Amino acid sequence: MLYTPGTKVLLRHTGEMATVVSRLEDEVLLIRLEGDPDMTIPAYEEDLLPAAAAISRVPSPVHQAKEQGVQERRRRLKGAERISAPKGISAVFEPMPGRDGTVLRYTVWLLNDTEQECLFELHIETRTRRVVHSEDKLEALAAVECGVMLADDLSDLPEVHLVCRRISTAGVEPPLERTVRLRPKTFFNSLQAVPVLAVTAYRFVLFEHLSAAVPSKPPTDLRQYVRQQVPRTEKKPSLPLRPVDPYDVKAAAEFSHEIDLHAERLLPNAARLDRSQILHLQLAHLRAFLEKAIRLGIPRVFVIHGVGEGILRRAVADELRRHPGVWKFKNEYHHKYGYGATEVIFY
User: Fold this and answer.
1) Rounded distance, CA 30 to CA 89, Å?
2) Which among 197, 234, 243, 260 is placed 20 to 30 Å from 65, CA to CA?
3) Pairwise CA distance, residues 325 & 315, whole Å
4) What is the DSSP letter of 126?
5) What angle do CA 305, 18, 29 make, to 5 degrees?
């Protein structure tokens, strides 16, 4: 679709409404966010949808706490009643109906209704794109919101890959892995009530428990022997990349591999802005920084957000989860930044 100035659009990965201001390049538009008319940001045309595709979400007890951050949601879920017959670790796809009742996307949750806790990595990918990538701690009787899957992704048979490392009194145990391919018929037959989330959704149990894996039977052929003996190595999926400019050597050499998002570093007039305006501008700087790093072929960068109340760190994590060029990211202790920066690794 050809978007002209003044056209109302929907950001595909965030659900925000915006208005097209002008065209910057063949596939890049300048848009103005509806919630912040004083700020314009660049956006790829492929990341936009017509305004008619706008989604209105039906509130649920869990989603009323959305603006309070992931930690608040976890506390609320941990307070749920004890489950009499826990199913285990599940991927849950909550439908998000639009005004006309059509479901165009699903909120993806990782749900744990057992009394064990673990560290996890969740990957959902199709043949053409990365849908969800999330790494975090999953507490007992809790759920973590991991991202959004579009309804169109189901036609590409998305693959769900989960790695869990149970946390015990002896420390973190060896990883357990499970991969499931979502086929439309199986997916739509999995609709059920999910009491912990207080919603009706599509649920796939990936692990019934997190105990050590049962020893496998002796291999019967060479292929099976190799599968059991050779450790699985993590590799980047083969996904389409945005063009990299290999000739801009000077720009690549001068590029700083870190960006400091503290307001006083980015905005000379930060004192005159409210917190929401500052956050929008910080994320706009982050998007521009990521796009430039990808264009120059930079393999990894650091995003400095500080510790504080964690609002900026969570906003950065949400932005990185949605960005199609980000392979993985982690907020671990670093000798230079402490816990105040997130490392970002690109495809």
Assistant:
1) 42
2) 260
3) 17
4) -
5) 85
Angle between helix 311-322 and helix 275-295 axes, rounded to 10 deg: 40
Give the pLDDT confidence of 214-271 residue by residue, as tens digits.
Answer: 444 455 555 555 555 555 555 555 544 455 555 567 888 888 999 999 988 887 777 7
Indicate the SS3 state at residue 205: strand
Cα-Cα-Cα-Cα dihedral sign, residues 90, 323, 77, 171: positive
Residue 18 tokens read as 């915006």
Cβ-in-10-Å burial (0-12, 13-18, 19+) of 206 comes to: buried
**Residue 105 · residue 13 · CB < 8 Å:** no
47 shares its domain with 111: no
Structural contact between residues 312 and 283, judged by C-beta atoms closer than 8 angstroms: no
**Spatial distance between the Cα atoms of 260 and 302, rounded to a whole number of angstroms:** 9
E strand spans, 40-116: 40-44, 48-50, 89-97, 103-112
Distances (CA, A) of 27 to 5, 10, 24, 43: 14, 16, 8, 9
Enter the tokens of residue 332: 């671990």
Angle at 111 between CA 152 and CA 105, to 5 degrees: 20
Strand (E) or helix (H) holding 194: strand 191-194
Residue 232 lies in a domain: no
Same domain, 77 and 203: yes
Close Cβ partners of 254 (under 8 Å, ≥ 6 residues apart): none
Residue-wise pLDDT for 10-30, tens only, equals 877 666 788 888 887 777 788
In a domain, 227, yes or no: no
Closest CA relative to residue 54, chosen from 93, 5, 15: 15
Residues in the chain: 347
pLDDT tens profile 44-53:
787 788 876 5
Span between the terminal Cα atoms of the chain, in Å: 28
Does some domain include residue 128?
yes
How far apart, in whole angstroms, are the C-alpha atoms of residue 6 and residue 4?
6
CATH number of the domain enclosing 334: 3.30.1370.110
In which domain, by residue range, is 271 found?
249-346
